[in-house]
């Protein structure tokens, strides 16, 4: 029975990693779904440390998908700062980097100040997650047919702050981070490609910051000595699932099928609110 129990544990963590990885890039709230999964199947999810670990897997997938954009931004940012390159492309990319930093600030500040309160209030209530999922669905429905005109070089500091505050709101489980930032970007008139790119590049500093802030607690938690293999399986599952989910979502955005995510959030949110 001990071997069977170990295999069940490994399968459970692999499933959770794949589940979180698939739901992270698409606008249905991975954190909200983990709360639902916990209550529905009475699962022990490993707490905040587990969520940080599998989110790091999603971060790696985002880095892979947007590697060409990141390489260009790093190259042009370096050229602007240290090689006196001031052509339009280099200047636009440097400003884009600055905007990513500015856009990160609201979520970072709110996360530090209210992170524990949000986790204790929303992370413990599936009914509240049901409500926030419905809110996510409404927001997606509103922008389902929008087509903006602003490209990467047309963003203003106010546009970026709006998107950044939307990301901060998504600290609540049930409010999708990708959904909130893309909705905000589309509402202020950005093109779909720009909304997508800014949303997922904005995820990078937030995710890295979360890992850095929690790395000491993670190392001292004893996970490496007791749960290394289950966590690694979840981590690898998260990378693979996030990669394919993100590639799929990019195609969905191009085809303008956000309404299906809105329908999904309406249905799941209502079921959760009524029955959990």
From TrEMBL:
UniProt GO molecular function: undecaprenyl-diphosphatase activity
Catalytic activity: di-trans,octa-cis-undecaprenyl diphosphate + H2O = di-trans,octa-cis-undecaprenyl phosphate + phosphate + H(+)
GO biological process: cell wall organization; peptidoglycan biosynthetic process; regulation of cell shape; response to antibiotic
Entry membrane topology: Multi-pass membrane protein
E.C. numbers: 3.6.1.27
Transmembrane segments: 47-66, 96-114, 126-143, 155-175, 195-215, 227-246, 258-275
Keyword Zinc-finger in record: no
Matching Pfam families: BacA
Example of a GO cellular component annotation carried by this entry: plasma membrane
Subcellular location: Cell membrane
UniProt entry keywords in alphabetical sequence: Antibiotic resistance, Cell membrane, Cell shape, Cell wall biogenesis/degradation, Hydrolase, Membrane, Peptidoglycan synthesis, Transmembrane, Transmembrane helix
Additional remarks: Bacitracin is thought to be involved in the inhibition of peptidoglycan synthesis by sequestering undecaprenyl diphosphate, thereby reducing the pool of lipid carrier available.
PANTHER family, per the entry: UNDECAPRENYL-DIPHOSPHATASE (PTHR30622)
Annotated family: Belongs to the UppP family.
Function: Catalyzes the dephosphorylation of undecaprenyl diphosphate (UPP). Confers resistance to bacitracin.
Protein name according to UniProt: Undecaprenyl-diphosphatase
Species the sequence originates in: Pontibacillus marinus BH030004 = DSM 16465
């Amino acid at each position: 029975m001990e071997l069977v129990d170990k295999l069940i544990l490994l399968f459970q963590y692999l499933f959770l990693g794949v589940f979180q990885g698939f739901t992270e890039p698409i606008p249905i709230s991975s954190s909200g779904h983990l709360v639902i999964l916990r209550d529905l199947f009475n699962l022990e999810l490993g707490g905040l440390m587990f969520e940080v670990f599998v989110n790091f897997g999603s971060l790696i997938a985002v880095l892979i998908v947007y590697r060409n954009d990141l390489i260009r931004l790093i190259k042009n940012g370096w050229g602007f700062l240290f090689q006196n390159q001031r052509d339009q492309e280099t200047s636009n990319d440097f400003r884009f980097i600055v905007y990513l930093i500015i856009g990160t600030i609201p979520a970072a500040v709110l996360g530090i100040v209210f992170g524990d309160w949000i986790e204790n209030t929303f992370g413990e209530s599936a009914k509240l997650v049901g409500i926030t999922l419905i809110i996510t669905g409404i927001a997606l429905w509103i922008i389902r047919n929008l087509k903006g005109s602003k490209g990467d070089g047309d963003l203003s500091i106010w546009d970026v702050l709006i998107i950044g505050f939307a990301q901060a709101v998504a600290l609540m489980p049930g409010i999708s981070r990708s959904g909130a930032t893309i909705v905000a970007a589309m509402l202020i008139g950005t093109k779909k490609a720009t909304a997508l790119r800014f949303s997922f590049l904005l995820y990078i500093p937030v995710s890295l910051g979360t890992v850095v802030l929690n790395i000491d607690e993670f190392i001292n938690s004893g996970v490496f000595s007791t749960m290394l293999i289950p966590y690694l399986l979840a981590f690898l599952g998260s990378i693979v699932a996030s990669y394919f989910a993100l590639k799929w979502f990019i195609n969905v955005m191009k085809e303008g099928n956000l309404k299906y995510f809105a329908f999904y959030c309406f249905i799941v949110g209502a079921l959760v609110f009524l029955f959990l």
